[in-house]
Amino acid sequence: DQGHGKITFKGSIIDAPCSIDAKSLDQTIQLGAISKNQLAGGGKSTPVPLNIQLHDCDAATANKASITFSGIAGDSAAGLDGSFAVTGQGAGVGVVIADLGGNVIKPEIKTSLPALSSGNNELEFQAYVQGSSASNAVTPGNFASVANFMMTYE
Questions:
Q1: pLDDT per residue over 9-28, tens digit each?
Q2: Cα gap 39→130, rounded to integer Å
Q3: 3 CB neighbour count, 10 Å cutoff
Q4: d(Cα 112, Cα 66) in Å, to the nearest integer?
Q5: In whole angstroms, what separates CA 125 from the centre of its chain?
Q6: Which H or E run includes 38?
Q7: pLDDT tens figures, 59-84
């Protein structure tokens, strides 16, 4: 035997006017190594792009779409309202998803998207880390946060 292997193919068939790119289904976004000082008192990290690719859209079927990001909401008492909670050693922060205009997209809130065109569409967002507004609340360490997304078409 000079080598062998196994390839498993997975996917799903959805009843929707657009297909979701495989790379958009399960993304890991690196937010960087952010200074505690930058996040102190409600500070923000530099936003990084978060894009979702849609393929083969049929605008005649549905050109209006919305997206809902779901996950555990950040602690509103700590000034992290509208963010997604984090786990890990790093604490006192939340992860925020916003549109390119800087408008925060809160967890569990359905958000309308620009009209879709037939063919391929790219949904563009940004993500950043928001520090707690409470003094000395930001704790150094690694963290993670999860946001799932669901598309809705009209």
A1: 777 878 889 999 999 999 99
A2: 6
A3: 4
A4: 4
A5: 8
A6: helix 36-39
A7: 888 788 999 999 999 988 888 989 99
Structure tokens at 33: 């190594």
Q: Is the pLDDT of residue 30 over 90?
A: yes
Strand order through the sheet with 48-57: 19-20, 48-57, 119-131, 93-99, 84-85
Q: How many CA atoms lie within 13 A of 97 on its CB side?
A: 26
In degrees rounded to 5, what are phi and psi of residue 125? -135, 180
Q: Which residues contact 136 (CB under 8 A, 6 or more apart)?
A: 40
Mean pLDDT of the chain: 91
Could you tell me the two tokens for 124? 């563009």
Handedness of CA 77, 78, 79, 82 (dihedral sign): negative
Question: Could you tell me the pTM of the whole model?
Answer: 0.91
- Contacts (Cβ under 8 Å, ≥6 apart) of 109: 68
